[in-house]
Amino acid sequence: MRLQCFSRPTQAKRRVTMSDPYVEAWERSIKDPNGFWGDAAEAIHWYKRWDKVLDDSNPPFYRWFVGGELNTCYNALDRHVEGGRADQAAMIYDSPVTDTIKTYTYRQLRDEVALFAGALADRGVVKGDRVLIYMPMIPEAVIAMLACARIGAIHSVVFGGFASNELATRINDAKPKVIVSASCGIEVKRVIPYKPLLDGAIRMSNTDAQPQSCIIYQRPMETAPLTPGRDVDWKEVVAAAKPADCVPVAATDPLYILYTSGTTGLPKGVVRDNGGHAVALNWSMKAIYNVDAGDVYWAASDVGWVVGHSYIVYAPLLRGCTTILFEGKPVGTPDAGVFWRVIGQHKVRTMFTAPTALRAIKREDPRAELMQKYDLSNFYALFLAGERLDPDTLKWAQKALKVPVIDHWWQTETGWAICANCLGLHAYPVKEGSATKPAPGWNLQVVDPNNQPLPAGQIGALVVKLPLPPGALVTLYNNDQGLIKSYLEEFPGYYKTADAGFIDEDGYVFVMGRTDDIINVAGHRLSTGAMEEVLSDHPDVAECAVLGVEDDLKGQVPVGFVVLKAGVTRPHEEIVNELIQMVRDRIGPVASFKKATVVKRLPKTRSGKILRGTIQKIADNKDYKIPATIDDPAILDEIKAALVTIGYAQGRR
Ligand code: COA
Ligand code: AMP
Fold first, then answer.
1. Using CB atoms within 10 A as the burial measure, which of 163, 508, 550, 572 is most buried?
2. How far apart are CA 363 and CA 366, in angstroms?
């Protein structure tokens, strides 16, 4: 097959052939969203058909499948049990950290979910109630999510690597009736007790937001004492429960809230609806990943992140695939061959992970020798996202795996890929550094600060013309104005991705980096603003800046710069250690905040704006111009010297 490059009709030069299924799908999705998504919705089971596919009567708030009623859990489980997949594996739990492999058929998973849904109902959870899930990568986390969907409750999963304080902010916002947690998680070298973190978070949270009860799954490696009157044991409540049936919900009812870092310490509660989400995710499995019912699909992420929500839990199950729930790391559990072992052993067809995971493997096994031990003949494609895919990692993976290695770009807010090489529609040649083309449904543009389109090749703000396709965020929890302020105000008529980039002459999209203070650390999205808020709380700190500097393994890591208050004479090392501990305690170990330095002053413009971009360039050994607006250029030498003391700005590392 001769592969050609076709561009979508952007400002870029057009070379369109109507026989390309990708081009046809993209154009139809934009010109006729009602027809396009209406057709896709036929693959979903509805209790009541929708009155309208796209309700655009109240911009900038758009709704999909208005008037329709469905149940996401029914579509993910019961439908397949009734449709002949009852004995097919729905989920394989592969946990090298506990030496466990356990398979759940669709029937078994449906039955366990129905029982836990009954247990939630016994604790008073009804449609519309929030249930917060703070769990490691164990089957009970997936069961709890689907059980919420079954009875119309809204789940909010919080990643296990977040500290009590972060958990408390989410409890305050979501006001969960019940929290579901486990006694512990397991990291490479240690067991992490979850219960003290949970107890701390509940203590810190507002009284009116605290849960009526907590259901705790006790793991054998560390059991947790239960708080009488509030905590109950998972196994006991399930033993006493009766299975609950699926409750029909409106297509526009919320399925879940997922908090993500914003530009302040307060995370944003991204709300996903039921109808649009089910339609888009089910459709994406074939169109983007080229996966069919019965295939084995593995997203090596965590259910605490959007990738885990969309592609460990909902999309593969909606499609009737077998999903893998992996409790381990790419290295150290036990070695850098574990990904290949899982692919071989479970006959994985398509895998999805973050580039950082491959960099970790490449560092330990540069020639991919461990891969040779496994039969990867079923493996069809590797998809990567979460951060920019660097060319070295792309080439390494292509050479070692000999399958398509596909970069695709998306965000917690979007729920699925904005740009991808849609293998189920048309496989395009891969261009290094590009996430290929906008997926159907996404009318992506590159604009200047005045919202004017930029020509091909020119970097600007990546924005998406409204309406966003189904499956994207519908609002922020209890905060419609927040949606407008954060995403819709700056470029009227468009969704601001807060990523910068360009589209080339062939219509390929290149995502260059964030335009705000968000950084990506090992594929985890974090706010440097939130870290600055923590550092500012230290009694000796007068001012501070945190920025992301390049890291060979994690892509970026945060580095802090602090100016001390006049008269502070304590050893700097002591203060820095306290700052590192504060970030770990208040945000969590996942922040990977391990380096900070004391400086006499911070470089600023004459109007007082800290020159973060310049500091970043110095740290990353990049060329930089001394900004014309800087109040004192000599400060840059001081910053460089400070960076050298902590291992940066030393020429090529
Ligand atoms: N619960 C508790 N602690 C956690 C945690 C969890 N669920 N996840 C991570 N942590 C801790 C880690 O133990 C580590 O603690 P430490 O500072 O005491 O060592 C810290 O948070 C940082 O974790 P991480 O960034 O994951 O670094 P790592 O060195 O342990 O592992 C990688 C590095 C690259 C192997 C790992 O980050 C990885 O697999 N990344 C892939 C990310 C991913 O899938 N992202 C989703 C988007 S697709
Ligand atoms: P998250 O919400 O955690 O999924 O993080 C979203 C952010 O990660 C995006 O706004 C991008 O900055 C970055 N990102 C995700 N995927 C890619 C990609 N394929 N290429 C470049 N950046 C990416």
1. 508
2. 6
DSSP H helices in 555-611? 572-586
Residues 321 and 296 sit within 8 Å (Cβ to Cβ):
yes
Considering only CA atoms, give the Rg of the chain. Answer: 24
Q: Where are the beta strands (DSSP E) in 119-248?
A: 130-134, 154-157, 178-182, 184-186, 191-193, 213-217, 231-233
Q: How far apart are CA 542 and CA 597, in angstroms?
A: 13
pLDDT at 6: 34
With the most atoms of ligand 2 within 8 angstroms of its CB, the residue from 431, 511, 554 to mutate is: 511
Interval 477-502 mean pLDDT: 97
| Segment 407-424, tens digit of pLDDT | 999 999 999 999 999 999
H or E stretch at 476: strand 475-476
* CA gap 480, 475 in Å, rounded: 6
Q: Which atom of ligand 2 is nearest to the CA of 497?
A: 10
The tokens for 258 are 């997922």
Which residues line ligand 1 at a C-beta cut-off of 6 Å? 160-161, 185, 187, 192, 300-301, 305, 307, 329-331, 353-354, 356-357, 360, 385-386, 522-523, 589-590, 592
Mean pLDDT of 539-560: 95
Q: Which domains can be identified in the chain, with CATH numbers?
A: 521-645 (3.30.300.30)
Please tell me whether the overall predicted TM-score, pTM, comes out greater than 0.90 for this model. Answer: yes
**Mean pLDDT, residues 568-587 taken together:** 97
Place of tokens 């710069």: 561
Between CA 333 and CA 301 the distance in angstroms is 15
Q: Is 113 helix (H, G, I), strand (E, B) or coil?
A: helix
- Is the predicted pLDDT of residue 14 greater than 70, yes or no? no
Label residue 186 by pLDDT band (50, 70, 90): very high
Q: Which ligand is nearest to the CA of 258?
A: 2
Question: Residue 61: beta bridge partners?
Answer: 58
CB 448 within 8 Å of CB 548: no
Q: For helices 21-31 and 33-41, give the axis angle rounded to 10 degrees.
A: 110
266 band by pLDDT with thresholds 50, 70 and 90: confident
CB-based contacts of 381: which residues, under 8 Å, 6+ apart? 289, 290, 349, 350, 351, 403, 404, 405, 406, 423
Q: Where are the beta strands (DSSP E) in 261-396?
A: 268-273, 296-299, 322-326, 350-353, 381-384
Cα→Cα distances 433→87, 202, 579, Å: 42, 43, 36
* Cβ 170 vs Cβ 158: under 8 Å: yes
How far, in Å, is the centroid of ligand 2 from the Cα of 299? 16
